[in-house]
Design brief:
Length: 430
């Protein structure tokens, strides 16, 4: 019963906790203002679904590339320094949308997304383990889940912004119609579309600058190595000896892949299976996020009474069942099943994260890097799913519905991790 009675957030750490938690919606916004644009970029730039999904490759590739440098930076300096570096890179990547939109070429956008998510990698590598330290270890996973519960609020704002500011204002011509246009008309329409795409990112950069100033002048606990040098090899060796940790990294890879595939390709499901417009399809994406947010708060409450691993053993099989519904059910029934997956995904990321880092102590700074690098799943798996969708039909299935076998496999792997965490490791500290 110790984990129930322990203080969640000590009073002297409440203000630092609030400031760090405010950062959590920032990566939710960046991710979810971007996901719907995979389909839009494919149409605007007249590309295949695989090429359009390279946005996800660049976006989540930045997480992978910068996670380890971020962890080393944080270990040498402090979590606060990591937060500031992350926000600075985030703002810089957002501002790169200005020259990218002016060139009207696809690859500068990939660079902008990559720089932006290098910042997000710094931000998440700093904020997640920082929250774990801001109170007793017995309540660390609950504390992280509470902070993560505010992240989807940024996601909802990002989705709404994508729908109302971008998608509703984009031209509606198909790829075939664009290919038939004369060069001047096509250039004018493309320039207009890209202006709407860049606008939210430029505004975001301004908001981030304000946050940088607030954190820079705030007193936050440093939790810095004052006496010890960075022993990278020894730390990695210790981490690799802990099965719960590296199995958590693997589970996180497949969870992030599943999440990004489900949310990115809801748009494709709606437009290609049900004939909806991109803006209307984004409305269902918003519904999925509302369910995700609600479920996260509900599940965080239940963590007062059941262990995170037991909860994961409930959520992951639920994700499998609803994914099967998206594959085998026709029409709106399949769409509703697809939306329901978000209820099951709601607590997976912070739960896997907390389970994997339990009892790591100072090693959590590098351990967090491995879990952020696992976000590579969101870079690698969506393009593969996009290549399946390009096939149009697979066996007796439409390619869109068949492609959801990929997130189904991911949920199977997460279920196995939840079972092992509960039955094998028994999580004595959670």
């Amino acid at each position: 019963m110790k984990n129930i009675k322990s203080v969640l957030i000590p009073k002297n750490l409440l203000l630092p906790y609030i400031l760090v938690t405010i950062c959590f919606p920032f990566w939710g916004f960046g991710e979810n203002v971007t996901n719907p644009l995979v389909h839009a970029f494919s149409r605007i730039m007249m590309m295949s679904h695989f090429e359009g999904s390279l946005i996800q490759f660049a976006f989540y590739g930045g997480y992978f590339a910068m996670a380890l440098p971020a962890a080393l930076f944080i270990k040498k300096f402090s979590y606060k320094a990591g937060l500031l570096m992350g926000l600075t890179l985030y703002a810089a990547g957002s501002l790169l949308f200005i020259p990218a939109s002016l060139t009207m070429v696809f690859w500068p956008f990939l660079i902008a997304y990559f720089v932006l998510t290098c910042g997000l990698s710094f931000l998440e590598t700093s904020a997640n383990p920082y929250v774990l330290t801001l109170g007793p270890e017995e309540t660390a996973t609950r504390r992280l889940n509470l902070s993560q519960s505010f992240g989807p609020m940024g996601s909802l704002i990002g989705m709404f912004t994508s729908q109302q500011v971008i998608l509703k204002n984009l031209s509606t011509q198909s790829v075939e119609e664009r290919m038939a246009m004369d060069p001047e008309t096509l250039r004018a329409i493309t320039a207009s579309d890209l202006r709407f795409i860049r606008f939210p990112y430029v505004v975001l950069a301004g908001v981030i600058v304000v946050m940088i100033i607030i954190i820079a002048f705030s007193k936050l606990p440093r939790y810095r190595d004052q006496e010890h040098k960075i022993n990278f090899r020894e730390t990695v060796s210790r981490l690799l000896k802990k099965k719960r940790y590296y199995e958590g990294v693997i589970a996180q890879f497949f969870y992030v892949g599943a999440q990004i595939m489900v949310w990115t390709f809801i748009i494709h499901y709606c437009t290609m299976e049900l004939g909806m417009s991109e803006a209307r399809a984004q409305g269902y994406n918003i519904e999925a996020m509302i369910i995700f947010v609600s479920s996260r708060f509900i599940c965080t409450f239940f963590l007062k009474y059941i262990s995170p691993s037991r909860l994961l053993m409930i959520l992951a099989p639920g994700g499998m069942i609803f994914t099967l519904g998206a594959i085998f059910l026709q029409g709106m029934a399949g769409l509703y099943s697809l939306i329901a997956i978000s209820a099951c995904m709601s607590l997976m990321f912070p739960t896997i994260y907390g389970i994997a880092l339990t009892g790591m102590g100072e090693d959590a700074k590098l351990g967090a890097a491995g879990l952020i690098m696992a976000i590579l799943g969101g870079s690698v798996l969506p393009p593969l799913m996009g290549s399946i969708i390009d096939l149009e039909t697979v066996f007796s299935f439409s390619a869109v519905r068949f492609s959801f076998f990929m997130p189904l496999i991911c949920f199977v792997i997460i279920t196995i991790f939840g079972y092992r965490a509960f039955k094998v490791y028994n999580e004595p500290l959670l």
